[in-house]
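Check this:
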Amino acid sequence: MGISDEIYLAVLHLIEEKGPSFTTAELASKLKVSKRTIYKMFESKEMIIDKAIDFIFKDIYLGASGVPKGARLSPDEMLQRYLIEFPGAQHVDKIIKHAKTLEKRYPQQWAKLNNHLDEFGKKLYDLFIGDPHVRILTGTEKDVLLLMIQQTTRKFLQNNYLVSKGLSFKAAIRTLYKMILSGIYC
């Protein structure tokens, strides 16, 4: 684990404990460095949160999912492997606990989080469309499927929805995709 990973994990730990109200002094103390060192790495607290969000999603995109280069997995195998391993999901849960505060105090970072989730949903949508076990969808069905994935994922972040239901982000996403793949009709 590089120094940057340690920094981002410390930021995420502080967000989990205190929400985005943590101070740079607390981060410096946790990392056993000076505040000056923190400000040499990051121009502002907004940048700290911004880069922590990037850190969460650096491994969530399918290209970094641990599949060896040159490996040939079917879209179905890739989707199943991806949902089982789902890197970064526990970090999303840390932010979700303080979604309202983040949305209110750091709207640009909140927008970035939502954009990452939209991109994540698009990547999974592409796997669904490429899966040979999924029937050929009409243009309208594809549009509705993408909208359903992205809007449901966003809803998970809003108003502490998952926290109030006692669910984790990973469990909710797995259930959503299982329902899409299997349907609910008996």
About this structure: The mean pLDDT is 83.
